[in-house]
Amino acid sequence: MNGALVYEDYLSLYNTGKIQGLKFYKLQIQPSSIDLSLSDECYEIKTSFLSPNNKVRDKLKKIYSKKINLKTPQIFKRNKTYIVRLNEKLKLNKSIKGHCNPKSSTGRLNIFCRTILDYSDEYEKIPNNYKGEMFLEITTRSFDIKISKEDKLNQMRLTKKSNNYINDENLKKINKSKSLIFSNKKNLIENGLKVTVDLSNDNKICAYVAKKVSSHINFSKISFYDIKKFWKALKPINNTLIIEKNKFYILKSKEKIRIPNNLAGEMIPYDTGIGDFRVHYAGFFDPGFGDPSGSYAVLEIKTNELPFMIEDGQTIARIKYEKLNKKTSVVYGSNINSNYQNQKLALSKHFK
Fold it and tell me: Which of 60, 13, 4, 54 is CA-nearest to residue 32?
C-alpha cells in the first residue's frame, strides 16, 4: 500500500541492501523513520551548496577549506559550517522516495542541519530511484558542540509511491473517533493541525532562551549538563513574550497532541502566514507519539528579522498527518526508550 514506511520496511530495506551502512544498528530504526549516523569523513566549508549536476563529493573537492577526521571527536564552532558524509548509502527503486529532517535533540540545541544528495537541487529531498552517498551539512548556531563519528543528528522518512498529507475534512473525522488534539479551543484543524503556544501563567516558567557561553556541549553525553549554565528560564509578562532577534527559544504547545498508531506526523518548520519567525527545526512525529492521552509539542523558535511579540494561544506551527503504508508493530514510547514521550517544557536529552 501507499504511504510512509514502517519499522519492518526499513529492516527489509537494510537486509536486501537498499539501505547500506558499515556501522548500521537496528536501534537506528524508529516506528516510521530511520536515524542516520555520521561517518568519520568531515569537511569545513565556507559556502553552502547543492549539487544538481554533480556528485556531492566532486563538488566538495573544489570548495572545502579543511578536511577533518571525526575518528577523534571534534568541536564544531558556532556559526561555522561543516559537511559530514553519512554512514548510510541508498540504493532505492522507483516506487520509494523520501525526505530528511533534523532529530528533536538536534533542533533543541539549535543545530541547523540539512541533507545533500548527488544530482539533487533540493535539500532534504530523497528522489525516487536514488542510488548513492548522503552528506549532512551542519551549522551549530547557539553553542559549540563536540561531534563524534556515529552521532545521529538527522533522520530519514521514506514513503511508498505517494505520501499525500491527509486533508482537513478527513482529519476532522479522525479527530472525532481518535482525538488528535486535546484542547478546549475549537477550529484547530485548518491546513493541518494548528499548534498554539502556552504563555498562560505569568508566575510559571514558559520558555528557555539560549545563553552565550564559552563552554561546549558534547552531543553524545546524555542527562549530563546543568540547565542554568546554558539556558535562561523565562516567564511571560501579561501572557506575552518578546522573541528577540538572533536569540533561540524553547517553548511548548498549549495543546497536547497525539499521533495514532496508523499515522505519522510532521511539524511544518516555517509558515509566513503566522509570523516572522522560524518554528521547529525538527519535523518528524512517529506513530504512537502522545498515545493515548496526548503529549505537548516542544517548539523551537528564532526570529529572522525583527523582534516579535507572541501571545498566549497564538498559532505558532502546524502538524501535517500522513498515512502509514501498513500497520506497524513498533510505536513511539517507553518500549523503545523514546526520549520525549509525555514531555512538558523539555530541553534536549543532554541536560539533567
Answer: 4
